[in-house]
Structure formats: structure tokens, C-alpha cells
Specification:
By secondary structure, this protein is α/β, with parallel strands linked by helices. The chain has helices at 18-28, 71-83, 93-99, 149-159, 203-215, 268-271; strands spanning 5-15, 32-37, 40-44, 52-56, 63-68, 89-90, 103-108, 114-119, 136-146, 163-168, 171-175, 183-187, 192-200, 220-226, 233-238, 244-249, 262-264. A 9-stranded mixed β-sheet has the order 14-15-16-13-9-12-11-10-17, covered by helices on one side.
């Protein structure tokens, strides 16, 4: 049975310097700190109780969590994955509390990236109280490294319910809803989490954040620019342990009845219609 994912729900990052990473998440990224217990610090970006966390550990062990609709869907996902030979681990009560979800399963995707399917991410009655005027409206999508985009696209679109919106060379952009994409699969010689996107309210927020990043000497790795695929205006920058973050606004919504996937050439103009050049290895070949 198809695994029906609703949305990307959270990312869990590891770092050897928890205090510095937490300071980045609030002072630079602009998220709300909701929990600072021991070796785990959690943050909000929207109505969900947590969308990003840092804990002490190896940065290579980042995890992406996706939301499923029901307990039945979670059981279906566990059974489907186990039947395919994936090692599936059930989350403990304490782990669910840390993630602010009702239940979850954990496994490694076909390339070895850490993935979790979660049930009922907890929400608050108020929007996130951002730590600065970043204009963030919510956690939106992720980029994943892929050693075999054909294999990984098959997993997300045939085992799961993602659809291809566009391709840039061998890089597919996959949607889970009407939003142009929730997952980008970047061809690379490794697997795991490549970038984390937060949507902002306006192009002014993109430019204002760009100025703040420059003032704090945060490495800008792409933009400001505009993607010809999704139409989003963006800026990408490097955070702790080399993780790439993105602010963007204006992403296209897809009409499922009429939209057809498009093939773009792998060239700078396919990545930015304003002429910005990426300083991201996988996008600058």
C-alpha cells in the first residue's frame, strides 16, 4: 500500500557545540526556543510545537520527520517498509514527548538517510513567538542528498505519495500537496539532509534577512535570487556544522488537474532567473 505523507513536520539536528547552535537558531535564524533541557534544545517556527531541534552528537546524524494522517496510516507505513526489508524502529514514549508527536516510526531511506514518520505533531493555540523580526511564517521543505536520484525518486513517488513537479537535470523537486515541492533530491556522493527551508511573509523579509546575515558574517551560499521552477524568491546561507538554511517567499501552488512536470537543463539559469550563482557544491558543477 502507498504510504500517504501529509507534510514535512520537523528536522532533528546534532551538533558538538549545542550552545552555539542554539544561539544561531534564535539570534540568527529567528526561531522561538521552547525547551532547553540538557542535551536537547527545541524550537518553533509556526503553530506546531516544535519544527527544529538540536542535540549533542554527530552532525551527520540529522533526521527528517514527516507527518502521516492517522494511526492506521502509521501502521500501514511500518508494515509496508518491513515487507520491503527496511529495519523499522518504534518510537518510545519519551522520544515522542521530545518530538511533540503522538507516535512515530524511524528507519533509514534507501540511501541511508534518517527518516521518521510521525503521527499528530502537537500544535499550540498561538503562532510562534519569533526571537527576532525574521518574518518566518513556517517550516516548509527540505533538500536531501541522493547518491541515486532514480532510486530515491522511486521510493518517494512509488512507495510514498510524492509527485514530481519539475526536474533540473537529474535533480527532482517533489511535492506532497499543492505546494510546488516539499522534497528536493540533490545528486551527491552522500545521503542525508542537505538544506532546511523556512518560508517568510514577503520579499522584504528575504532582503532584510539577507542584510542581517551579511552584518553577522554568516556565509551566503546562494542568492538573493528567484527560482524559475517554483517562482520562489530566496536566499541560502550556512549554519552550524555546514548545514544550509533557506528563507524564501512566493512558492508556486500546483493545480493537480492541469500541471505537468517540466524538465530544466542543469545550468545556472535553471536555478536562478536573476543570475545569482550557487556556492553549493552540488549546484555549482
Amino acid at each position: 500500500m502507498t504510504i500517504n505523507i501529509i507534510d514535512v513536520a520537523y528536522v532533528r539536528l546534532k551538533t558538538p557545540d549545542l550552545d552555539s547552535a542554539s544561539e544561531f537558531a534564535t539570534r540568527i535564524l529567528g526561531l522561538e526556543l521552547i525547551d532547553r533541557a540538557g542535551d536537547l534544545h527545541s524550537f518553533r517556527s509556526d503553530q506546531r510545537m516544535t519544527t527544529l531541534s538540536y542535540e549533542r552528537g554527530d552532525p551527520a546524524e540529522a533526521t527528517v520527520g514527516f507527518e502521516l494522517a492517522s494511526g492506521e496510516e502509521l501502521e500501514n507505513a511500518a508494515g509496508t517498509l518491513e515487507d520491503m526489508g527496511f529495519a523499522v524502529r518504534r518510537g518510545s514514549r519519551t522520544e515522542c514527548e521530545h518530538r511533540q508527536v503522538s507516535d512515530f516510526i524511524a528507519f533509514s531511506d534507501p540511501g541511508g538517510g534518517r527518516i521518521e514518520f510521525a503521527l499528530a505533531p502537537h500544535v499550540a493555540g498561538n503562532a510562534a513567538r519569533l526571537s527576532r523580526d525574521a518574518g518566518i511564517t513556517g517550516f516548509s521543505h527540505v533538500g536531501l542528498f541522493s547518491q541515486d536520484t532514480g532510486r530515491d525518486q522511486h521510493f518517494w513517488t512509488q512507495v510514498c505519495n510524492a509527485r514530481v513537479s519539475d526536474r533540473v537535470g537529474e535533480l527532482p523537486l517533489l511535492r506532497l500537496s499543492q505546494i510546488h515541492h516539499s522534497i528536493a533530491l540533490l545528486p551527491a556522493n552522500r545521503s542525508g539532509l542537505q538544506h532546511i527551508n523556512h518560508q517568510v511573509a514577503s520579499i522584504d523579509d528575504v532582503q532584510r534577512n539577507y542584510s542581517l546575515l551579511r552584518q553577522h558574517n554568516v556565509p551566503i551560499v546562494f542568492g538573493p535570487g528567484r527560482h524559475p521552477t517554483s517562482g520562489a524568491r530566496f536566499v541560502y546561507f550556512e549554519g552550524p556544522d555546514g548545514m544550509v538554511f533557506e528563507y524564501s517567499v512566493g512558492v508556486q501552488e500546483v493545480d493537480e488537474e492541469t500541471y505537468r512536470e517540466r524538465q530544466f537543463g542543469f545550468e545556472p539559469a535553471s536555478l536562478c532567473m536573476w543570475g545569482a550563482k550557487a556556492a553549493i557544491k552540488e549546484l555549482s558543477k
